[in-house]
Amino acid sequence: LVWVVVVRVPLVLNAESHLDSDLAVDGLTLGEAVRGHWRWHYPGTPHIGTLPVLLSWPQACAWGANPIMLVSGGTVAYVGLVAATFLLTWRAFGPPVAAWGLVPLAFASTGVIWLSGRITGGHLPAAAWHAGAFALLHAALANDRPRDVLALGLWCGLGVSLDTMFLVTLASLLPAAAAGWWLSGRSRRGLLRGLLVVPAFLAGAWPSQVGARLDPYDAYQDQFRPIFRRDVLEGHARVLVRDCLPRLFAGHRLPGLQADPDLSAPVGPGPSRGRPDPSPLAAAATAAGLVLALASTVALIAQGLSPRDAAQGAVCLGLLASSVAVVTGSVLNRNIFNSDNYRYLVDLLVPWSIGSGLTLRSLARRGPGGLAAAVLLAATLAGLMTLDTTRWYARFGWIDAQGRPVHKPLDDPALAWLEAHPEVRRILGSYWDVYRLSFLTGGRVQGVPYPIYPDRFPEWSLPPSGGPPDVLLIRPSPEAWPFLESALRSGGRVLHQARGIAIVSWSG
Length: 508
What we know:
The protein is mainly alpha-helical.
């Protein structure tokens, strides 16, 4: 766990350099919580409750709701994922598998490290809850105690309140629990105890239901609508196989071995694509990550076919079912466009860790030679991922020649102009710009996105608390030109221009 934290220090220290719009909304919500205003859910997203605020809230109360304190919560979330997965593996598969399974989580890819720089956008809290749910399922099946069943129900209810993505976990827990009951003798007593899940689940799920009714505004109404067009599904499958899965397990996309994002590009909206990386290290890290992912899948399937007991068999079935559901959902999701959508696959980290532990444990059991081979493979993976992460950080300028973390000051002309003009209170611009600048100015500036983008804070543009923007922030993009023309026609003038941005006074 110490290494998990240490390796993320450069990411946390340079939080403002990789702050995006969704992370900025997380930060604005954190700032409200520090000031005593707690929402039922994140603004404009009734499917994600505000429990993740607690990941950064103690730090923000102590040192302020700034980007560093916000992003430190992502490391807390990842530590929670590692701890929950370790607990699940220890209980269901034994201490040796749990110990070996720590290797891929502790020495994870740059793709996983990047996700731990997000809060809601990385969905790591949901992944930690996913692991915790299976640990509680195993306890309920292995111990046959009412309190374990109640704990499982409450945990699952809170999971739905935490992130609607937990519904994938819930859908796989149901057949897993049924299989565990069937394999353990199909007792009537076990069935009746299982019904205790229902009231406990309702007790945990009520915050999401109350919040959705008190604050029903949803800025992403089509977020989870599936699509079934064959050409689109084929494109999504290509993105999944070539971009998302390799980025999650190995940190590089195929076939060019790009390690996203490319933060050397100028500050601007949209995903920043990495450059092809022909280095042998990138190839070796990618091969190691993908081979281990394949081996872990085979090992988990094999364990599921010959489980030690009913509880272990149920866990294997549930994890495999959830993996299939996650992959299928990623293909059917209409909002899959590029490798950035690999964040929806984070639940796969749990079976990946367990399967890796099973693989290395099996090898280590084959006498002294097998143990030496397992240690060598684990050390090779750890070394490759550490070296690859070092190159990744060095490319951003976040570590020096000795590998020590370095804070790289943010150079953003729009932010500099806003700091020099405290009279500006509201800006109109792209989704990427307005919320990011709102958070970086400590919430002083209220950002309103163009109408084509989700409006996370509609109250900022409506009376009595909101109103028309003071300035328009323009970047060269098709959606910006109509607003620029409207501003200039109504008497607006260009107040500032620098490196791809223009700030225009707004009177219409």
